[in-house]
Design a protein that fits this description.
Number of helices: 13
Shape: elongated
Strand order of the largest sheet: 10-14-15-20-19-18-17-16
Strand content: 15-25%
Number of strands: 20
Length: 509
RNA sequence: UGCCUGGUAGCUCAGCGGUAGAGCAGGUGACUGUUAAUCACUUGGUCGCAGGUUCGAUCCCUGCCCAGGCAGCCA
């Protein structure tokens, strides 16, 4: 066990305990934990698969030939030569394929002419240095087995496909370089989210997916019911009798775990949620989904400045994690999806985010000389075009905007002393727009109750929320990071449907 | 939900008021330590659906369906 020490994050001022070995100078090096070079293979039928199965990722990373091995995967392409064939195999463990050289005389190779793109195969053999360019190792086959054929109707070709076409085959598109890469990045960034918070002493909490509160946020909610929609029980006034429903009241899918996270932050200190969220809005854009994953930290004894520090540190941590642990995938995206991706991500990882107030943003926009479609005036919402100008043209990088007009924001945000703004902040990034939205929460009971009344809320149904201020109230703050939007930013994908394996959007489930 | 663009072969697309084209994929053959292999030949389409205009519609018009982009709502 190495000694722990109290340090401050290099990006945010929050203190936390880390192992001494992780400390570099006055700051913390968050220890990169590269995806393992050796990945376990669990075999179902050794007799059928063959000896010592290893994954393509491991095979390609070999320093010395590992001896007799078996590689299982799906054929990406087959090229025939006189007396033997080249078969490129991908097993999803990494972006690259393993080239197998299959002599037509080896057992099982008789029918290799019918092995088309998409077929599943198991190839036994030895890794040998490849005499040709393009790969370090290749698999010299000693036995070949076709596990499952794929005929000419298999829709994926060696050529590039449009994202639109791939969306029409969600059950097969994960076998492509593009979708497979987004899913590998997604997996590793999910892990990095937990590392970030766990290293800082946050507790991972699970807030309910089903909620009885219908006013959590501005969003529209999906109803959860077991009533017969054709003939629901009705009261004397003809209205649906929700008391007869499963939860004895109306119930919905959550649009945010924030309010529950606040109660847990006011007990555990620093907490975060990471789970699915549902919005029933009929949003028809490239960056909205009806079901998406959101990361929502909530920190007790924290103000808006700490909130912004945490959000910036998290975004940077995830960008660095992607650069360090998914280099091949990011190279791929940089080459085929978004030419400027790597340069942009490296800048984001290094430079501090710009920070301005809403009022300063309005002034910048007004001074830009740009003719915007929507008016720029204090009190008006920042529109997409305004956010794009700020991040893509003016700052050319992420911007954190804070202190928004109170009238445009929810009841729970802390009122600033100027009487007209609240301690809210959004992190805007190029290409995606709003990736983080958060605030310091109103911890003063009278102010909160007044704001709830002003928003037309029933105080009685929020008694528990007011109790947090009634008993031991503390300054606290938090935010929501859209996980898919983060993935869009990191991969350069322009559509949220392409960073989600099975996207749910209006009209599609 | 509003505005815009599109729907032609399995995929990516061209085309045109007069009876359908290419590349790739598939098939056959040749050639080859290939790597988006190459070369030759070849299979394959009621041109999104329904009406209308016309001697004749894949093309023009209307409606509908679907997809994409932008906007609003937000993560």
């Amino acid at each position: 066990m190495s000694a722990t020490t109290l340090v401050c994050c290099r990006s945010c001022s929050r203190a936390f305990m880390v192992r001494a070995s992780e400390v570099v100078g006055p700051a913390v090096l968050v220890q990169p934990d590269p995806a393992p070079a050796v990945s376990a293979c669990f075999r179902a039928d050794l007799a059928q698969i063959g000896p010592m199965r290893i994954k393509v990722r491991e095979a390609l990373a070999s320093e010395t030939p590992p001896g007799e091995i078996t590689v299982c995967g799906w054929v990406r392409t087959r090229r025939d030569a006189k007396g033997f064939s080249f078969v490129e195999i991908n097993d999803g463990s990494c972006l690259r394929n393993l080239q197998a050289v299959v002599d037509h005389a080896v057992p099982g190779a008789e029918g290799i002419a019918s092995v088309l793109t998409g077929a599943s195969v198991a190839v036994e053999g030895r890794l040998v240095p490849s005499p040709a360019k393009g790969q370090r190792w290749e698999l010299q086959a000693t036995a070949f087995r076709l596990l499952g054929e794929a005929d000419a109707t298999f829709p994926l070709q060696k050529k590039g496909h449009t994202a639109e076409f791939l969306r029409s085959i969600p059950h097969l598109r994960a076998r492509t370089n593009r979708i497979g890469s987004t899913l590998r990045v997604r997996s590793r960034l999910a892990m990095a989210v937990h590392e970030f918070f766990q290293a800082r002493g946050f507790a991972y909490v699970h807030t309910p997916v089903i909620t009885a509160s219908d006013c959590e946020g501005a969003g529209e909610l999906f109803r959860v019911t077991t009533l017969d929609l054709g003939a629901p029980p009705r009261g004397a006034d003809g209205a649906v009798d929700w008391a007869a429903d499963f939860f004895a009241r109306q119930a919905f899918l959550t649009v945010s775990g924030q309010l529950e996270a606040e109660t847990l932050a006011c007990a555990l200190g620093d907490v975060y949620t990471f789970g699915p969220t549902f919005r029933a809005e009929n949003s028809q854009t490239s960056r909205h989904a009806s079901e998406f994953w959101m990361i929502e930290p909530e920190m007790a004894f924290c103000d808006l400045a700490g909130d912004m520090d945490c959000a910036e540190a998290l975004v940077k941590h995830l960008v660095r994690a992607a650069l360090e642990r998914c280099p091949e995938e990011l190279e791929f995206f940089n080459a085929y999806v978004d030419k400027g991706l790597l340069e942009r991500l490296r800048l984001v990882a290094e430079r501090p985010f710009a920070r301005i107030t809403y009022g300063e943003a309005v002034a910048l926009l007004q001074a830009s000389g740009r003719a915007f479609e929507y008016p720029v005036a204090w009190g008006e919402n920042l529109q997409s075009e305004h956010e794009r100008w700020l991040t893509e043209e003016h700052f050319r990088g992420p911007v954190t905007v804070r202190d928004y007009p109170a009238a445009a924001k929810p009841f729970y945000m802390r009122q600033n002393d100027d009487g007209r703004t609240v301690a809210a902040m959004d992190v805007l990034v190029p290409g995606v727009g709003e990736i983080v939205g958060g605030s310091q929460r109103e911890e003063r009971p009278e102010r909160l109750a007044a704001a709830m009344k002003a928003h037309g809320l029933d105080l009685e149904s929020y008694r528990w929320y007011l109790d947090l201020r009634r008993y031991g109230t503390v300054p606290h703050a938090g935010f929501g990071l859209g996980f898919e939007r983060m993935l869009m930013f990191v991969t350069g994908e322009a559509n949220i449907r392409d960073v989600t394996a099975f996207p749910r959007t209006p009209g599609h489930a």
